[in-house]
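Form 7-S
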Amino acid sequence: MSKLAIITGADGGMGTEITRAVAQAGYHVIMLCYTLFKGEERKNQLILETGNKEIEVRQIDLSSMASVTNVADDLLGRGKHIDLLMNNAGTMSTSGLITTEDGLEYTVAVNYVAPFLLTLKLLPLMGKGTRIVNMVSCTYAIGRITPEFFTRGKRGGFWRIPVYSNTKLALWLFTRELSERLKAEGITVNAADPGIVSTNIIRMDMWFDPLTDILFRPCIRTPKQGAATAVSLLLDERWKGITGRMFASCKPRKVKDKFMNHPQAKQLWADTKAYLEKLKLEEPIG
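Output:
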């Protein structure tokens, strides 16, 4: 049987490139996509390009923890061992503060709480050799975890770039904490920083947008270039056994000690777990 890979946001720019590379490597790939129709289109395209027919699509709304739970429960019901989990999906709100059905700020739900929940729910299907990769961003370094993190993203008025940065810091802290908890089981957990990539997330919705596209977009990385670090972490034998690290440009990145041993990492884990428990969602590890 083919090894199994789960990829979120698999119908996006970088998600498609990651899916293509993993499919070409012979994995059975489950694409977790927000839009089923778009996901099916990409799946059919990738089957033709790679010759790998073991690609399937599942719809998931990462802003809804009930949707995340339903998909995870379905995968648990199949019982197939997961070799790769790529938490690739991400968003940056362009419409101000949006509150999800779970009372979460939308960006926080999609970028951090959903991958936290999905990963922990799927852990019973993982074991020695499984690789978990989380897509972070260089903006983690300006992120802050404040009491308003879950419901507003930041103190004061809503501004999407700080809120986005906060979620990427949170995802990095999750990467670090989970890597320590799973080290003895031989499951690796690492973070990929793709750099600034020309995807739909780069859209400012301001007066200078036309100038952004004309002057800035041609100078940044293509989705394939942005996906390269994540692909390397998922497939390259060089990184077998490496865990709890951040990678950029397909190599380990030096991260300041205050982010490697962040004082809020354990508290954020506990707070996230408590929030999920308040929603009465089962979560398999403490």
